[in-house]
Protein: NAD+ transporter 2
Amino acid sequence: MVGASPVDHRSPKEVLFDASAGAAAGAIAATFLCPLDVIKTRLQVHGLPDMQPSGRKGSVILVSLQNIVRNEGVKGLYRGLTPTLTALLPNWAVYFTVYGHLKELLHSYEGSKNEDQLTIGSNMVAAVGAGAATAVATNPLWVVKTRLQTQGMRQGVVPYKNIFSSLRRIAHEEGFRGWYSGLLPSLAGTSHVAIQFPAYERIKFYLATQGNKTVNELNPWELAIASSFSKVIASLSTYPHEVIRSRLQEQGQLRNSEPHYSGVVDCIKKVFQKDGLPGFYRGCATNLLRTIPSAVITFTSFEMIHRFLLQLSPPEEKHPKPHPKPVDGTTSQKGSTSPGENDTLDQSVNPSNDRTRIIPLDSRDKLTAKH
Structure:
């Protein structure tokens, strides 16, 4: 049995770099792709838009864009962007902090045998744990985002003004429980990251192996390939939970007179009774058009920004460098030792077993200069 290696706790600077790079990357992606996010959310909640008799099949996205611009102006394409951006900083800060910490713990349990790369199971555990913590911490902001994006389709409903007034109003009308509408599907949605992150890291590892280099040396094009393929796999596997989550988040007991879902099971039953299996994939095509570019932008931007920050301000070495061995190989600073003892001492301080940093999106971090 391999003994557990000591845990190398990340410095505050490394945690800050993780959160800053993740928030910046997410903000860039969210800003560029907000119109598609608005359409996707409305398709999930309200179904297909009214099509003209001459409307061509496959023009749902175009018709949705035209309806939003005609009824709400260009501003309608960016409804919910402010709470989306506001939620991103705590979202990525919590996710990357918890994900990195869990990876450190799992590395210590797996020991030096798997020092360079966590197993798929360990990656899944870290991703699910981080996803659950993030869902609980940021769910109120995502509830506000969903309602801001869909309120333009409600007639006779007093619109929400901004993030803070929305939070106050939801708490007043529905209680604090309203902040956590759709939390259970969100927790179920951790299955998405449980698929996406291990797939992303395995694809990166494969591309690095094919290119005879480390994952930290992958170029943006290779990172785009890894992020896009992993996102498609995860999205197709877990999309139905997003439909249920959006419908539960959108409903408010005092906001309209339509029948409400009493819970997750009731929502699933009603969606299936009304639309059948296709109802669980409403907006899926739009979602893929949004999430694939989003994943490419987010993951590639994260890697590039994180590398830039590390070059700008490298973290301090966590382990002292080993003392040079005496020429005869038989003595040390503490007295005489045998050659065998020196070998043991060398292994205990061998820098090849050190991990100077762990980037959350990369569990195969290596010190290439020392291998």
Notes: The first helix runs from residue 12 to 46. Confidence is low (pLDDT under 50) at residues 1-7, 329-371.
